[in-house]
């Protein structure tokens, strides 16, 4: 994040233009996200459901989400509190996934009646 009084450019007194990412970088990241989406679609249509298809698609989705969060949600320029908040939300989401999968994968072992 930029601070209001640190910009030396008189036409940008709040330093907004100085902290903005370049258009070329954002277009490159956008192209990478689109390419990963196409790879994910191609993976699902060409290979189909398989043992490693879902983990590969989840990995591709994770990379896409990381690119979007880092560049388009400005975690790149965020201070440590913003980054810590984003990481803590991922941590809690991981706990929820572990609890959900633990419940789902052990339902066959529950004795009823």
From TrEMBL:
Q: Name one GO cellular component term.
A: plasma membrane
In terms of InterPro entries, this protein maps to: Caa3_sub_IV, Cyt_c_oxidase_su4_prok
Protein name (record):
Oxidase
Subcellular location, record wording: Cell membrane
Q: Write down a Pfam family by its short name.
A: COX4_pro
Species of origin: Gemmata obscuriglobus
Question: What membrane topology does the UniProt entry give?
Answer: Multi-pass membrane protein
What keywords tag this UniProt record?
Cell membrane, Membrane, Transmembrane, Transmembrane helix
The record ties this protein, via NCBIfam families, to: caa3_sub_IV
**Membrane-crossing residue ranges in chain numbering:** 25-48, 54-72, 81-101
Report if keyword Cell membrane is assigned. yes
